[in-house]
Amino acid sequence: MNDTNVTWHEHQVSRVDREMMKGHKGCVLWFTGLSGSGKSTIANTLDHRLHQLGIHSAVLDGDNVRHALNAGPAMLRDVHGEEFAQRFGLGFSAIDREENIRRIGAVAHLFAQAGIIALTAFISPYRADRERVRRAMPEGDFIEVFVDTPIEICETRDPKGLYKKARAGEIKGFTGIDDPYEEPTAPELQLHAGRSSPDVLADEVIAYLRSSGIILPRS
Ligand SMILES: Nc1ncnc2c1ncn2[C@@H]1O[C@H](COP(=O)(O)OS(=O)(=O)O)[C@@H](OP(=O)(O)O)[C@H]1O
Ligand SMILES: Nc1ncnc2c1ncn2[C@@H]1O[C@H](COP(=O)(O)OP(=O)(O)O)[C@@H](O)[C@H]1O
Asked: Which residue puts its alpha carbon closest to atom 6 of ligand 2?
């Protein structure tokens, strides 16, 4: 489908060329779970472990990406003005979350095509949004990692005090409180981050990457 006069260009250096140079494949490890479930912590622990193994990875993190690429209206207003901020700034409504995930999916796909293991850490509460990202990539590129931590544990951790604010009604539409979280039905990996340490969970993911041939068994 082409709604403007834009043409797809094939690049001279292929994805396979890049993967051969790096000695591992590119892919997207899509961490999904409630706020405070451990997505960022596990993704960063894993990133560090992969770096030590000489594997090229990169973390795309919800809070950080929402400071730039997917900034909210308040952040865009000063530089771009009100109309722009209203049109392109993203909040937490269902449609804004959909656009957040669409953009991240596209960026993560570019990373994978460049031979990098992209680690994305977004709540991504809607199944349909995650499935759209999966379908836009070649089979095997999208690896869904469900960070399965019960809400009671997330709420006890509450590192940013957001659950407290949501319970007090100071934040509306907070995932798990008064906004939905749709659990993955068939994730490639399910991590019990209420029971195991981030190091143990990072090992589980590395074992998966080895067994699926994304990284070499000896790496
Ligand atoms: N209403 C509401 N619901 C959920 N989360 C909220 C909300 N408002 C702000 N925050 C903070 O934003 C972080 C989640 O951003 P994401 O981009 O991952 O969300 S989403 O995937 O678009 O649903 C999330 O960060 P994490 O705790 O790292 O998940 C929160 O700190
Ligand atoms: N597997 C784990 N075991 C114990 N605590 C964890 C674990 N993973 C994360 N935490 C702690 O839980 C809190 C929230 O983790 P974070 O990675 O910020 O979650 P998310 O990115 O899903 O919002 C942090 O204080 C972190 O230290």
From this structure: 38
